[in-house]
Write a structure and sequence with these properties.
Blueprint (H helix, E strand, L loop, with lengths): L1 H5 L8 H8 L8 H10 L18 H14 L3 H13 L5 E2 L14 E5 L2 E4 L12 E2 L2 H11 L6 H8 L2 E3 L5 E6 L19
Length: 196
């Protein structure tokens, strides 16, 4: 269900794992569509939805974005711009659909490779689109402030975001509130933050 996708209890395999197993790696704007087609060909899930918590893998984000597109009749990017970013005043937030696109004022991550030498590190090469969100500190501050406020989507949304994630059998997952899965995570070392 959509709730399983939103709570990382869906059982869908991560697209990066599937790509690695298939020996397939593509880049560029067409990758998003190719990944959705690859997911459609999967015959089984990793586990029955609701039985386990599995926060890894970005497949769920691509599937959720596709649901938004079908229901809204807009591209995911346009929906987010019109219904989230512009209303919240997030003027420096966008989904990057082209890895070659230059972004003004972008902080570029580096990784220590040894002996005091740093190497430019673009991270794990996410599929262009819904998993490639770029923002600013100012915009992320606006996002976090609004998520903490019931005014954004009313008390019902605030309550939903503050619920703990539970498996279908009622087991609470590490007391993680659902807000943790809605734009509050970062990729650790991939974004220049040491995992030590």
């Amino acid at each position: 269900t959509v709730d399983h996708l939103l709570s990382s209890t869906d059982g869908v395999a991560g697209y990066k794992v599937l790509q690695a197993l298939a020996g397939w790696d593509t880049t560029g704007p067409g990758q998003h569509t190719a990944i959705l087609q690859m997911l459609q060909r999967q015959k089984t899930l990793n586990f029955k939805p609701g039985d386990e918590f599995s926060p890894g893998g970005d497949s769920r984000f691509l599937l959720l974005a596709r649901i938004v597109e079908v229901v809204s009749g807009q591209s995911f990017d346009d929906f987010c711009k019109n219904n989230i970013f512009i209303p919240l005043g997030m003027t420096s937030t966008l989904f990057l659909y082209d890895d070659a696109q230059l972004l003004e004022n972008r902080a570029v991550p580096y990784r220590l490779v040894g002996n005091g030498v740093y190497k430019h590190d673009v991270g794990g090469r996410n599929a262009p689109g819904p998993t490639n969100l770029y923002s600013s500190i100012r915009d992320l501050s606006l996002w976090r402030t609004k998520l903490a406020s019931p005014a954004l989507g009313g008390p019902a949304l605030a309550n939903m975001l503050n619920q703990t994630i539970k498996l279908d059998r009622g087991v609470i997952i590490r007391d993680i509130a659902r807000v943790s899965t809605y734009g509050q995570q970062h990729a650790g070392q991939e974004r220049g933050i040491s995992k030590k």
